[in-house]
Amino acid sequence: MGLFNSEMTPQKAVEALSSDKQEKIDKGIEFLQAGGPEMLPFMVEKFQTIVPQAARSRKHATVAERLYDLLCSADLPAELCTPFVEALINAPDNLEFSLDKLPAAVVINSYSFLEATIRDADVETKKKVVPFFDKIHLPPTILPILASFLNRESGYAAEALVLIPQVDGDLSPVSDALYNMLDLYPLGDNAAESILEMRGRLTPNIEKLDKYLMDFSSQVQKRAIRVAVPLAEDNSAVYALLEKSILADESARVHTLEALEKKEILRPDQMDLVWMILVNSTSPLTEERGMKFFGRIEKSVRPLILHYAQNGTSQEIARAFTCISFMKEEGPRVCKELLGVYMADDNLLFNRAGYSAFAIIASMMKVNCAEEAMAPSLAKKMRDYCTQNNLDTPTEVMALLAPGELSDVIEWSFKRIFDSYGIGYTPQFTEEMLSGISELVSFEAAVMNSFIKAIGFTYSYESGEDKPILTHKETAAAINRLRSVNTPATCNILHLISRKKDLEITQADPAGNVISSFTLSFEEHRKLALDELERRGFPAYNPINYLKQERPNY
């Protein structure tokens, strides 16, 4: 006898749900739905009975899934919601219940059961509760429960982090637990993301942030900075902590730059952090990384550069001009403005910026506004300061000078070397002298080497006599090399050698008293130079001869 050849009953209707014939399934569904609210307790009870059996029987699994669809489409009374949800939570893994179908009212009416389950059940059962809470807004009363799960031992921390944002209102009850998680691996990264996601509803834990920001070169410091950079936008206490860590530690500077690099637009106070990093960094790589910000957002950082270039310390001024090198569009305009300021303010140029900043100031002026009439004048001011204070003129300053001034300063440097007879200069001096101006001067390093050797001298004492005599071999060879190179520059150098003054040599006893004095004659050096000048027709000495760009005709 077929199923529908006798009178239909609720039990038979449920059995029909497992049929492979759609007609029987439809009649079973029709009967259960036609029964109205009175049929719902039976359906829930049947659901509770069949669900545990579904793991062993595909027939029961099919009935359970079809009953689930029917119950989700019905208006379940409050007293049936909890048994229904409890059966869902305890369902075996082979059942596929789409919670998208479950009405939010069912979850709301089951909230007390769900809260008790998430508080007291085993970890795996707690995890099954999470998807139900996705259906509703959670009340604040659940926050203490979730806070207790925010640790490595609970086995439920990741799920708790998912639920917390769904709680309405202030989330401060979980603040301490969340910040404690920053020091946990691998949960610390999840905690950082959650803190940032909920920062508008979460009170920052200043004490924990301070501790973690000063935990140098650690993962927790990196996470703390990742959290602190966005929080500092609205919280002055957090901003102060960031400043403190930047001043204290290079790893904090690196991590702060990493966090700021992820932002498309930087606020003025964030650019101040970048500036602080640059001024205090001990790593060239960190400095270069920080300076790139100035090329990325040129217009917005222009006021900061102008401020520090005029009001900063010597180190800050040097940093400001270095940052200009990354400002392709604004660099020329900034330099033109600063050119007038530095030209008019000797205190700013000589005292606040000082000699140590001359090179970078001149270099940026050369790149960005060398065509301005005041640029060579500013270089001359720096050059005069160097001359008056017996300082080497930086090659960057030389490059900014007008040709006449440049030739004068090179001449001054050469004559200073010459007047010292080469005493005190190291083998590296030639390279240092030509560094940066090789494009400006008209001679090569070999000529400079010969010049330095031609300046110098060695002497010894004749056997049996207490009288020094000049050792000519090396010096004379250097002069002869200069004689073989007929250029305007070597003509100038030969003029200097032809005027090489004799040197007074004194001997003193251990007490410092002079016991003898002799004159060391450089007549032979002078004669070698004069003979060559005569052969060349005595060309005039002219400082401009040292430069590549202008050469007199002979």
Report low-confidence residues grouped into runs of 5 or more.
1-5, 550-554
What general form does the structure show? rod-shaped
Widest sheet: strand order? 1-2
Supply the number of structural domains: 3
- Output mean pLDDT: 86
- Total helices: the number is 31
Assembly context of the chains? single chain
Main structural class: mainly alpha
* Total number of beta strands: 4
What separation lies between the terminal Cα atoms? Answer: 131 Å
Strand content: under 5%
* Major β-sheet profile: 2 strands, antiparallel
Radius of gyration: 44 Å
Query: How much helix, percentage-wise, in residues?
Result: 55-70%
Keywords summarizing the entry:
31 helices; mainly alpha; 3 domains; rod-shaped; disordered C terminus; 4% strand; two-stranded antiparallel ribbon; 554 residues
Kindly describe this structure.
- Helix 3 runs parallel beside helix 5 (78-89), helix 12 packs parallel to helix 14 and helix 15 packs parallel to helix 17.
- This protein has 554 residues and is mainly alpha-helical.
- A hairpin with a 5-residue loop joins strand 3 (503-508) and strand 4 (514-520).
- The radius of gyration is 44 Å and the shape is rod-shaped.
- The longest helix is centred in the last third of the chain and has 17 residues, at 403-419.
- Helices cover 62% and strands 4% of the residues.
- The N and C termini lie far apart (131 Å).
